[in-house]
Amino acid sequence: MTDDKDVLRDVWFGRIPTCFTLYQDEITEREAEPYYLLLPRVSYLTLVTDKVKKHFQKVMRQEDISEIWFEYEGTPLKWHYPIGLLFDLLASSSALPWNITVHFKSFPEKDLLHCPSKDAIEAHFMSCVKEADALKHKSQVINEMQKKDHKQLWMGLQNDRFDQFWAINRKLMEYPAEENGFRYIPFRIYQTTTERPFIQKLFRPVAADGQLHTLGDLLKEVCPSAIAPEDGEKKNQVMIHGIEPMLETPLQWLSEHLSYPDNFLHISIIPQPTD
Amino acid sequence: MNQRLFCLSSQWSWPVRGFRGHHGGGKSWSASSERGEGENPSGRKGNQVQATVLQPLRRAVAGVPAVTAPALVLISIPTAGVAPGLPPEEMERGAGASLPSRPADGTALASELVRGTRLAHLPSGFLSLATPESEQNSGLLPPPRHAVLTASQVWRNSPEEVKALGLCAPRRHLDTCLHLRPPALLLPPPVATGPPPPPHPPPRALPAAPSSPSVQRTQGWRAGAGRRRAGPEETTGWGPSSPRAAAAMPNSVLWAVDLFGKVYTLSTAGQYWELCRDSPLEFKRVSATTQCCWGIACDNQVYVFVCASDVPIRRREEAYENQRWNPVGGFCEKFLPSDRWQWSDVSGLQHRPLDGVALPSRHWEWESDWYVDENFGGEPTEKGGWTYAIDFPATYTRDKKWNSCVRRRRWIRYRRYKSRDTWAKIPSKEDPKQLPDPFNDLSVGGWEITDEPVGRLSVWAVSLQGKVWYREDVSHPNPEGSSWSLVDTPGEAVQISCGPHDLLWVTLWEGQALVREGINRNSPKGSSWSIVEPPASENGIVHVSVGVGVVWAITKDRKVWFRRGVNSHNPCGTSWIEMVGDMMMVNVGLNDQVWGIGCEDRAVYFRQGVTQSELSGKTWKAIVASRESDRSHSGSSSSLLRGHGSAPLVPSAGCFFGDEVRGSGESCAPSDTDASLEADRPGPDQPVPAESVDGPRNPRDSLASGTGRTPELAVEVAGPATQTPGPEPRPGAASTPAELPWTNIDLKEPKRAPSHSAVSFPETTGLSSLGLLPLGLEEPYGADDHPLWAWVSGGGCAVEAHAVLKWFTVQSGLSPPVQTLSLSIMPAQTAAWRKQIFQQLTERTKRELEHFRHYEQAVEQSVWVKTGALQWWCDWKPHKWVDVRVALEQFTGLDGARDSILFIYYVVHEEKKYIHVFLNEVTVLVPVLNETKHSFALYTSERTRQRWPVHLAAATEQDMNDWLALLNLSCCESRRVHGRPSPQAIWSITCKGDIFVSEPSPDLEASEHMLPCDQMFWRQMGGHLRVVEANGRGVVWGIGYDHTAWVYTGGYGGGCFQGLASSTSNIYTQSDVKCVYIYENQRWNPVTGYSSRGLPTDRYMWSDASGLHECTKAGTKPPSLQWTWVSDWSVDFSVPGGTDQEGWQYASDFPASYHGYKTMKDFVRRRCWARKCKLVTSGPWLEVAPIALGDVSIIPESPSTDRSGHSIALWAVSDKGDVLCRLGVSELNPAGSSWLHVGTDQPFTSVSIGACHQVWAVARDGSAFYRGSVSPAQPAGDCWYHIPSPPKQRLKQVSVGQTSVYALDENESTTVPAQPSRAILRLRWSPAWRAESWLRPRLFSSWVGRSPSKCGDSRLCLHGQTPKWVPTLWALLSPGNLWYRQGVTPSYPQGSSWEHVSNNVCRVSVGPLDQVWIIANKVPGSHSLSRGTVCHRTGVQPRQPKGQGWDYGIGGGWDHITVRANATRALRSRSQETATGWSGEPGLPSTPSRVAGAPHEARGPVCC
């Protein structure tokens, strides 16, 4: 029998094979070889691309190097979105590896946040965790943690250490026995088709009648356009971590098992491939 | 004559003497139960109902000399005091009307009535009022004037008045007082406006017969009821009783009676009240224990509901056939004149012919015919079972001698109790004149007075006359008891409560409480009474309930009181504390948990926060669980006259009688529900009014469905075509005007009654409707379908302090009715969405990773270090705890495999040093909780050989659990052991009850290059067990210390392994109970006799069993921090050797063999005190209720046989010695379905089933048995074959593999010295060891171990504390000889002889490959810590099944091992290469030990 715990592992160890190519307009001293890497789905681009940066900097002149940023098929990649989300949202229908273009010039100020250091990523990550816990437990769990626990969460993510991360994170996934779930489910729904960055609303895991809310319930409530009509053709894929959970899946379970390390359930709504 | 009688019910078959009314009328109580709803389309009807009652009553009263009227309630009123001027008819009406008006109105009547009127408690809170006049007039009018109303009504109206009512005069007239239906039945009928109930299948046919020939059946008024309510003895068609209740029992259930007399149970695991189905009875009282429930039904008879169990209740009847030798005819039936009967009992004094032995009651049946017992003292006799002696009475021998003049043999016949899971009427065999009058109250308790958990019960009852009765000889094997005996009381009792232990409180008529003193094991009835005054003199006690050490009481003003300071020594307690809440009654259940029934809302409340330290709890919480039946009527969740919110609907006196005022012109009766149901439903001549169909809700639906009535209603609605089984026509429907039930609602429309006389008593009416029923009336159709309760009993309901109950939240409609924990694959696990996620994740990994594995990882694996501070039990002398810093370094190799090293940094002579352990070498991590330390031991194979683990302690439990979990995870990670253990896993258990599991490598049973078993890696499973047995198909069963049976759920983790180390599902709470024993020692001296002043050389006067450690009552702690006390100290009478009445055992000196009686030579004595403690943990285990087990064995399956799909044979021995066979066990349903009982003539202790269905067992007398003809088709086999034990040895355990049969004996001749010298003692018991109490048991066992049959010492030494109520346990734990059964062949499965294999064996497990593993008492050549070592027999081969030697594995401190699942054979080709890779995972070469640190010779304080 497969255990739910295995899902956590599968989610954590999800990898996206990626091919980094330097943008053609970048000035190099010699030709830049593409760089191949397995990116952890749950991590952040700027956190795991030190090697990429080094690789391309080697072929560049020092003065041409400024802040690195990534782009896929013309879309600048937001480093503060988890890698898996970026891939699902933008590239899930394309062939692997994922071809990412590396830029050092003309930082798209209006599209991307600057990422001066890993501290910025940590700050962003921790604020997400805190926001999620505010939704789940009125921040009670995260506030009771010590600083070193917070650090352990971050270090776990940074070093890709599942045990280290989950030793702490499991506390964030608990809920009182008398409840049937969290207060609210921390989720964000992303669509490529809209301008809006994402949808985030208060949504409880359990209905007033005690029924567990499902993924379908959530979408119906906050993003009805994502669901195909009863008899209609399926127009969209609802994707988390590269898979399409059934709409009957209880939201609470999803939140416990398919959340990203930032404790949010990042759901991508992407148009159904036409093939 | 100015006498009024009201018939309320036809339930009561109590002779009514002297019923002479002066009103004309017929002979029968012919009230109609038929009435049309159309009569009162608005639904606000009701006054008329009274007319129906009164009229026939009047008729009945006249000219019936001795009406044995089944059932009534009498209200007799003195007219003189009521309305002097009125004509009789009017007077009566007035009287009847005015009587109940709430007293505050100050009418003459009320005061007249109240003054000098005696108040009698009648069943279930009714009161009867008798006026002085009635007594004076008794010559003329024998029946006293009684008014009857519910207690609640009286109390509600005016507590002061009620108090004024007297409680004084003796109840001389109670024999003429008619009995009442319980108040349950007095509930005002519901408003009948809803649609007719939905059609239901017709009810089951119930034979109807009068309960006695002299009883005149009540017809009409309760015709339907009469039909339904045949006496239970006649209702043979009760059917298979209530399986649900039975199924719920193991979870432990709360019993309750609703206002309609229906009995419900609420499981601690459930969320719905379940109706005790198939019972035509209605009950007033129930008093539950875990195994049975006693009750008083509305027929005033006592019933017992013995919960079903697969083990039959059987009792052996014996008779002896005696013969005397005579020179002519040899042995024959010719006796000397002084001789005994030819057929006699064992003493010979009683004549006992075989055909004269009768079944005690109709609830028993014979199991077989008489047969001769051919066993004598465990050995088979020849010659027809005769035993010989010189003369009667003498010592009998099995062999005939030259001087054998007499002989006798024993005949045996078993009888079986058959009325289980059904209400069985307690038979009354006695002379009717001796019989108690009907019972008013009943209470069951006392099961903790003796040691047996479900043995003897104390059943106490109070009769209507206020007498207290005790039921003799009630026990599990004799559930009915034998007879009632009267216990004198200094006053008239009204209510009684008996606690599980020695508390017994009685409520007196006068409001005080009586407390029984002197209840103990020898006199369960107690010796004397003392009186406890009520909290306030003006408010007497009306109800008490007691637990183990608590007393709760209700006073007349319905206040709840808690008695402070109650315990065994002071059963009266010290003072009252008032608690919050107004309750009708309270009931104390198991663990002193408390339930109550709210005064206002009649809801069952649970007292939250009751713990041993805070017995009074914190707050009342209402149980909102709905009745199961309510859910089936989705549209009928209607209110029983209950408004929204918390509006009460207690039938109030005001309501009742106010109504009566207005309705009395015709007739008046408080209707009970049944009556109202009958009355409510449309009669044949009255069509259902359309309005009623349109009514928003039909309150009856919930009632009817709840009470199982609906079918009949449906039938009635459907018309006569679908006739109910009852043969009688429905009388009365036409003869009396159709009446409507009166209800609260009617108060609003008093004028509806045509001959209304409300004008006569305007104030009454006004007050009734306005003052007394202010609540909820405006909203009669409230949506709340809250059930109304009359009684609750928690005596069978075990609520754990931490347990999460589902009682307090309303469950959504889709929840399953009973949350039964099922072991078969959980639905959630199989949900499509889950499967899809698993599948998609696998696909995703494949898609995204398969072709890209050569890509570089973005994040380099790094080292992670966890550091902390622990204490370390240092390896060298002087051994002590030293503070150390520890660091765990986890690193990931290139292949992704992880490994870790644990560094322990210590300082010696100011020099920093460290030892380190590679976690891939760790073989086991054992938590070593003791009284003071949270510690754990870490073994590598080398340290296993040295018997000296790395022993670390953490400051807090949390800290230890964190480290333990992390280290375990690292060990498993480095060994790549994940998830649930394989079906072939080897399981073992330590003496602390911790469970370990090891994955067998193929080389473990290799013929050559066998994997040394000290290299096996053991990982811990959550949970707590004493015995575990497994089977190669993944079925694993366990037995707890308290003998609870558990089945493995397929999860892993639990206990201290949370988070990642634990599976998400399949982890459940598990608890275990055991006893701690200490000894009180005394020495005799000429001055004071026995005293606690010993000689200087003597042992401690309070000691452990060895006498070496002081163990005082106050100073003795639970065995470890996991355990908490759950009882107080009590004398243990069940010690081997017997005790006297006070529990003392005598001996000539310490320590010697103790006996249970005093002789001249005895100078010392001791007695054993026991205290229960409890542990609560969690693990992948689910309880297999309800039978407690002593041993279990699952068929080993060799890999060659493909049996998947077949059910798996599982045999067990219950804690009482019954042999059982589990049916329906399979991989998908490892818990199986039911037990099959295998009859034996004596209790058994051990059982084992071999691979070919060879079942061997060991009886308590030490002999072995082979069960013939066991096969899948005949799972229980056919008969036992007796196998003599090895000479002069008593066997205690047997294990059967593929063909090998091994047995263990108790070893009477243990070689260990009885007591070590003082010098050795001191040497061995250094303070360091004292601190190390976890080592203590095993240390001592090596030299204090004595023959278990002679003293209890050895078991105590082994285990520290061992549950003693189980005689099978300790024997298993002391070392004995291992025997191999020679000559076992398929054609002769019994074998020929026993061959000695080894001594010093504590437990043996023979596997499907005939491999032999044992727990050795002591491993030669190592430290005495090796006590309890896992050993593996080497050299076992087909031609040499006994093997050659032992290979020593993990230990000491192990108690149990099972290899019966491991059928993994070695693969010859790889045996060499992977000899060291234990888990079958190649690539994990076992590195040579790199344990640094202390030199070897410095280790180990124990010299052997």
From TrEMBL, chain A:
Query: Which Gene3D superfamilies does the entry mention?
Result: 3.10.20.620, Autophagy protein Apg5, helix rich domain, Phosphatidylinositol 3-kinase Catalytic Subunit, Chain A, domain 1
Keyword Ribosomal protein among record annotations = no
Organism the protein comes from: Vulpes vulpes (Red fox)
- Tell me the subunit arrangement: Forms a conjugate with ATG12. Part of the minor complex composed of 4 sets of ATG12-ATG5 and ATG16L1 (400 kDa); this complex interacts with ATG3 leading to disruption of ATG7 interaction and promotion of ATG8-like proteins lipidation. Forms an 800-kDa complex composed of ATG12-ATG5 and ATG16L2. The ATG12-ATG5 conjugate interacts with RAB33A; this interaction is bridged by ATG16L1 and promotes ATG12-ATG5-ATG16L1 complex recruitment to phagophores. Interacts with TECPR1; the interaction is direct and does not take place when ATG16L1 is associated with the ATG5-ATG12 conjugate. Conjugated with ATG12.
Query: InterPro entries from the xrefs?
Result: Atg5 (IPR007239), ATG5_HBR (IPR048940), Atg5_HR (IPR042526), ATG5_UblA (IPR048939), Atg5_UblA_dom_sf (IPR042527), ATG5_UblB (IPR048318)
Gene name, per UniProt, is: ATG5
- Ranges in a coiled coil: none
Residue ranges of the Autophagy protein ATG5 UblA domain?
A: 11-104
Q: State whether keyword Acetylation applies.
A: yes
Which residue ranges does the record assign to the Autophagy protein ATG5 UblB domain? 184-269
> What is the name listed in the Swiss-Prot or TrEMBL entry for this protein?
Autophagy protein 5
TrEMBL record, chain B:
Residue ranges with Pro residues bias: 188-205
| Key words of the record | Autophagy, Cytoplasmic vesicle, Lipid-binding, Lysosome, Membrane, Repeat
List where the protein spans the membrane. Answer: none
Chain ranges of the Peroxin/Ferlin domain: 312-373, 385-418, 1071-1132, 1143-1176
The record ties this protein, via CDD domains, to: PH1_TECPR1
The family classification in the record reads: Belongs to the TECPR1 family.
Q: What is this protein called?
A: Tectonin beta-propeller repeat-containing protein 1
Query: What is the source species?
Result: Zalophus californianus
The primary gene name is: TECPR1
